[in-house]
Specification:
Distance between the termini: 23 Å
Order of helices and strands: HHHH
Number of strands: 0
Shape: flat
Helix content: 55-70%
Oligomer: single chain
Length: 77
């Protein structure tokens, strides 16, 4: 388990985002995402958003495809 709760993980990820530390935010979230219970669709949305903002458009598209096609998540989940 993570030392973070779901809300703490969201808040910390948003800190990275607003500080424009997209690579750090991606790496942080990627390490913690499977350690918390909560809305995985939302966490994965942040993950591919951070990848895109970091300039990793191919990785972002791969993640988006995985989230939608393989995991079956969409925004209403």
């Amino acid at each position: 388990m993570s030392k973070y709760t779901y809300i703490q993980l969201l808040n910390k990820t948003l800190e990275y985002y607003f500080e424009e530390k997209y690579e750090d935010g991606y790496n942080f979230l990627n390490l913690q995402i499977d350690k918390v219970e909560g809305n995985k669709a939302q966490l994965l949305n942040f993950l591919y958003t951070l990848a895109c903002k970091a300039g990793w458009s191919e990785k972002a598209i791969e993640l988006l495809k995985e989230v939608v096609y393989e995991k079956g998540y969409w925004y209403s989940v």
